[in-house]
From TrEMBL:
Recorded coiled-coil stretches: none
GO CC terms: cytoplasm
Gene Ontology molecular-function annotations: acid-amino acid ligase activity
Annotated organism of origin: Aequorivita xiaoshiensis
Domain GH3 middle: 297-363
Protein name (record): GH3 auxin-responsive promoter family protein
GH3 C-terminal domain span: 389-491
Domain of life according to the entry: Bacteria
Classification via PANTHER family: GH3 DOMAIN-CONTAINING PROTEIN (PTHR31901:SF9)
């Protein structure tokens, strides 16, 4: 009998039964007040009058009235650059211990997001909350005695002046509690490896030494790792190597596009738990098995605001118009797309993280990620959002029994007429023309604006199928393998030309 596992599971069950949470709305009010009080004497807090905001009858409204929206470039150029120069008390008291490198979408210059000790603590606390949520899932007692494979970027952080730099997964893994290290795989030595191919090769060689019960990491890189392990041991599936594998915690990007190809690497279904961990913080996690939606962590150092996703509010560079209205958690509605705004214990203020979300349950503060503000195609009025694109991909998968975990597209002009040119990452014998026709029909049915555009200025749809490896090599070209890459679903003209040249060079 798994005695230790039974003790841990019982403790989690008891905690889940005893701990009563405040309302999500009240928790958010307290978080904002705490953030403002802590940062009121920083340069940012003085400039925007945090002390005065705290005196207001409605602190949330006063905060949104007095402090503008910031995207990364605005925050970095006006404030964080001073922090990087070593100045204290700029947007948060003192100086951060870390900077998280994030290239965001493939091919962009790396961002450097401050990560304070308080943020490290909130990430750890959110992780503990997520473990506590396992009480809601059907896991066996012995699960809590198994090891966890956490596949991320290197924990060998780089020293830059007085700061340590790395990706958020590396920063988080380098701060795991001492009591957890015995469960953590691939272990500190392998986790420090910079070369991703070497890291995966070493994991494959040592895979049979470990009793893995759970996986955690970005879906695309996790798939590649599992394929390597399966291939190295000449196995049929990953359960032949890790028979006690019961759960996978996804993160970085939505899991659904990878679900079909991921499941083909398993002998039987496992529990899939979605998380929302970004360079800016641990924002949400799946709290219960009845839904794939994720619960915002509303009492843990991050204050959320929600801007209705209206094309009129989005500037050409993906930033927000300053006159866009922001709603609190108390004001949102279900099934409406919002641009997510956060303020955090790392000194990000009214910060445009770049994602759009929709609430599935307001009372429980449960959300799903619906897209990116920059991945919105509105050429000739098509108003095509990522969630509509993803839904169309799932429809194609169902119709033709294929897998399409990756795609990208651009609006192109041919003989003075606009087309949407899609590249689908899939291996299939189905003709591009047949796929284009089915895709076009799916989008017309799902989006009336698209249907109107197709009857007017949008001439048609082109599809080019390429292997999934092309997308993986593109990501590797623009950023280290294993890193958190949000593949551009929508490309501009210049980037699309670069993409097509890359595909051509690969001889696809």
């Amino acid at each position: 009998m798994a005695i230790l596992g039974s003790i841990i599971k019982t403790a989690i069950d008891l905690r889940d039964a005893i701990v009563s949470e405040k309302s999500q709305v009240e928790s958010q009010k307290e978080v904002l007040k705490s953030l403002l009080e802590t940062a009121k004497d920083t340069a940012f807090g003085k400039y925007y009058g945090f002390s005065k905001i705290l005196e207001a009858e409605d602190i949330q409204k006063e905060f949104s009235d007095k402090v503008p929206y910031f995207d990364y470039h605005q925050m970095e150029e006006k404030w964080w650059v001073k922090t990087q120069e070593g100045l204290e008390d700029i947007t948060w008291p003192g100086v951060p211990t870390y900077f998280a490198r994030s290239s965001g979408t493939t091919g962009k210059t790396s961002k450097k997001i401050p990560v304070t000790d308080e943020m490290v603590e909130t990430i750890r606390n959110a992780g503990i909350k997520q473990v506590g949520a396992l009480a809601n899932f059907d896991v066996q007692s012995d699960f809590f005695e198994k090891e966890i494979m956490m596949l991320g970027s290197s924990t060998n952080l780089e020293e830059q002046d007085q700061f340590l730099e790395g990706e958020i997964s590396g920063i988080s893994a380098s701060n795991i509690p001492f009591w957890f290290r015995g469960y953590y795989k691939p272990g500190e030595e392998i986790a420090q490896m910079e070369d991703w191919d070497e890291k995966v090769e070493t994991i494959a060689k040592r895979a049979r030494e470990w009793d893995i019960g759970a996986l955690s990491g970005i879906p695309s890189w996790m798939e590649l790792m599992m394929k390597k392990v399966i291939e190295y041991h000449d196995a049929k599936n990953i359960h032949e190597i890790w028979p006690n594998l019961q759960a996978y915690t996804s993160g970085g990007v939505a899991f659904q596009p990878y679900e079909k190809s991921f499941n083909q690497l398993l002998a039987h279904p496992i529990i899939i738990i979605d998380t929302y961990l970004a360079s800016e913080g641990f924002l949400a996690f799946q709290n219960r098995p009845e839904t794939t939606a994720m619960k915002l962590v509303t009492d843990n150092g991050i204050y959320f605001e929600f801007v209705p996703f209206n094309p009129d509010y989005i500037n050409d560079d993906g930033s927000l118009s300053q006159d866009a209205p922001a709603l609190t958690l108390e004001e949102v509605e279900v099934d409406t797309d919002y641009v997510l705004i956060i303020s955090t214990v790392s000194g990000a203020w009214r910060y445009l993280i770049g994602d759009t979300i929709a609430f599935t349950d307001v009372e429980k503060a449960e959300i799903k990620i619906t897209g990116r503000t920059k991945f919105f195609l509105n050429v000739v009025g098509s108003q095509l959002s990522v969630n509509k694109m993803e839904a169309a991909m799932r429809e194609l998968e169902e119709k033709f029994d294929i897998k399409i975990p990756e795609f990208t597209l651009a609006a192109v002009k041919i003989d003075d007429e606009f087309y949407h040119h899609w590249y689908l990452g899939t291996d299939t014998e189905i003709s591009d023309k047949k796929l284009a026709e089915a895709l076009d029909n799916a989008l017309k049915e799902a989006n009336k604006n698209y249907a109107v555009a197709r009857s007017k200025a949008l001439k048609g749809v082109k599809v080019s199928t390429v292997s999934l490896e092309v997308f993986q090599e593109w990501s590797a070209k623009n950023k280290k393998k294993g890193g958190q890459v949000k593949m551009e679903k929508v490309m501009g003209e210049d980037k699309f030309a670069e993409w097509e040249e890359f595909v051509k060079q690969l001889g696809v």
